[in-house]
Predict the structure of Multiple sugar transport system substrate-binding protein.
Amino acid sequence: MNRPLTRRGLLKGSVLFVAGAAVSACSTGDPLAKGGAAPSGGAAKITLTHWYHEYGEEGTQQAAMKYAADFTKANPDIAVKVSWIPGDYATKWTAAVLTPDGPDVYEVNDVSPNMVKAGQVTALDDVLGAEKADFNPKVLQPYIWGGQVYAVPMIVDPMLVFYRKSLFAKAGVSVPTSFAEFAAAAKKLTQGKQKGLFVGNDGVGPLGQMVPWSNGNLLIDDRDITYDDPKVVEALTAVKDLYDAKATLQGYSTDWWDPGALINGAAAMQWVGLWAVPGLIEALGDDFDAFALPPFGPGGQAVVNMGGWVQVVNGKSRNLEAAKKYVRWLWVENTAAQTDWSLAYGFHIPPRNSAAAQADKLNTGPAKTVMDAVAAHGIKQPALWTAEVRQPYTDAVTAIVKKDTDAEKTLAEAAKRSQDILDKVPVL
C-alpha cells in the first residue's frame, strides 16, 4: 500500500541467500551499500538483488527473507539478496535504476511509459503465462503498455469508508446511498469533539479525486485530460461545502491510513483500507463496517479505490531470465507465499483471484463486505494519472476547497498544465 507506515522494530539491511543459507550483506544497516558475495564453495552462479520498501507490518521482512531462501533452496544456482529500503523508497529506487547496478527486481505502485522507454522495466507476459487470466484485469490494466504487461501484482489494497455502527445508531444515521446523504451524515455525526469524517489531516485527502470519480469523471481519459468539466466543478463544490461545514477531522495525531481516529471516536467515519480490519476487530469487535463512497448523483458510480504494490523486473538486469524465473516462482506460481504475504502479517487481497477466493479471512464479517464492494465498485487509478500529471490538479483542489478560488477557472488553467505534461509522455 502506498502510505507511510509505523516501524515496529524491523531489522534493516540486506541479506543474501545462497544455496539456502543467509549471509549478512550489509553490516552498516545501509541497504544501499554494496557487499554480500557468495561464500567460497557456494553453488550459486547468479546473484539477484530484490528491493522492498520498508513495510510496517511486523514479520514482513522475515517473510521476504524466507521466500528468497526457499527459492534459492529450489534453485541453488541463483542467490537472492533481499534489501529492505527505509525512508523515501520512491526516490531511492528511481535513482538506483538510472544506473546499470540497480536492483534486478523491485516493487512499485505505478509503471509509466517513461519507465518502459528507459528500460527500467521489462515485459512480463511470459512470467504471467497462462495464469494471467487468474489476475483481476482491473488490477493488471494500468501496467499494460503496447499490449504487454510490465508488472506482476503482489498485494491489492482496497480503500473505502469505514464507520462506527454504534455512532450511526446513536445519531439516527443510515448508510448513505448518495454523496449528498454522505455529506449530511458527516455533518450530523459531528458532535462535540467528535467529527463526522476523517479523510486526512488536511481535511480533504482523497475526496478531491474520489468524489469526481463518483460523479463519472476519472479526470483523465487515455491521453486526454478531462477534469476541466462541469461534473468535476460540481463535485469539488460539494467537497468544499463539506470542508467549510467543519465536519472533517483535521490535525489528528495519525493520518488517514491509521484507523486510530475511528477506534478512539475522534471521527464516526474514516477513509481507510482493508489493512485496518484486524486492528478494528481487536479494538471494536463488531462495532464497525464499511461501504463504498456512494455515487455523487444520477449517472454517478460508487467507488472503491484499488491500490497496492506490484513487482517489476529491471530491463537493464544482467540476469534478466533468472530475475523473471524468480518473480514467476514467487508472485505467480507460489500461491501459498502470496496468501502468507497478504494475510499472515497485514491484511490485503492476494493478487491471484483463486488465492483470494480461498482465503477464509476474507470471506466473513467486514472483510467480506469490503470484498463484495471491491467486486461491485472497484476502480484502479488510470495508468497515465501519474504524480507529475496530477500535480496541477492537486494544487487546483487545494485552491478551490481551501482558498475560495473560482472552480471553473482554476480547473481550466490546471488542465492545460496537466495536458502539457501528459503530451510529453511517450506513446508506446
Remarks:
- The first helix runs from residue 60 to 74.
- Confidence is low (pLDDT under 50) at residues 1-13, 23-41.
- The longest strand covers residues 152-163.
